[in-house]
Amino acid sequence: FFRCPNMFILFLCVWMSLNVANSNLIITGVIDGPLSNRPRALEIYVYDNIADLSSYGLGVANNGGGSDGVEFNFPAVSATKGTFLYVSKESTQFNNWFGFNPDYTMSNLDVTGNDAVELFLATTVIDRFGDPSIDGNGQAWDYLDGWAYRRCGPAAPAAIFSATSWQYSGTNALDGESTNAAAASPFPTATYIPPAPDWTVSANLASNLKELLSAHWPMDGDYTDSSGNGYDGTASGGPSFVSGKIGQAVSLSGAQYVEAGSSSALILSSDDWSLAAWFKTASTSSASFETGARIITVRSSGSSLAAIGIVGDSIAQVFCMWTEEGANGQKMIVGDVSFADSQWHHLACTW
């Protein structure tokens, strides 16, 4: 959502769409099996398509000794939305128990019922089962000779563990069993179902959103303002529509832009405004953005303006800027990560 009397997108080639992104991986199950203490394994659900799985890793925090960081990295392969990945300490007993092979083996996956597991994106923990600083023996999440499985309620990975978000077989539930299929309390393989988005909006909330939302351009085949406020855009320079993150997006290059007119109701001040957009660059060269590329520019009275975009030579950083006419000059917030990578990103700024 953004207020925008004049919208200029000046990338060499930028696609823009407004959509919701899902989390990519989530831990859904852990098992401490009975076949000579095997299988010791994890089940992981893929929330969204992943082009390169090697950004993700796993770690085991044994006996409450705290995090050991990343101990296993996935290979540089893709992963498909809606599939389950299985990681095991070894493959033979895993196959004997489940009847199929694991996708990956992790030799130090020593989950013995009282150990926490961490899922990483690069070096940042994005999901946890158990508390790395607590020995799980006797805890609500104790899975000795048993299993734990994520309930279908939580919609995203959780770096802070909640025991109530999981269901448990109970300790020693798998003792004496030979296969998962014949077990009295089998591990519920691939039964996690991500919750559907809740699109229910109360009448009061809908009214408040309409009041606060100044304009919204999905760019899905036209330049209509879907907020209902009537700030439809007009294209200049012949931009085209291409496949977007969901639906279509507008592709702009050179002097092409979309302008949404002007209105005194949309004039911004130095506070209380937000700009947001999905964008994707065609160029992966940071030098392409040396002089700056604005995704959205909102011109206020005089020479004052607000903008979000990318700028940089050695690194193409996102920025959020407010330039005020008079003595206050220009104020800018700049990121420190390059976004010239031909991937979709959501950029939002609230001033």
TrEMBL record:
InterPro entries: ConA-like_dom_sf. Residues 1-23 form the signal peptide. It comes from the Eukaryota. The keyword Membrane does not apply. Keywords: Signal. Pfam families: Laminin_G_3. This is Uncharacterized protein.
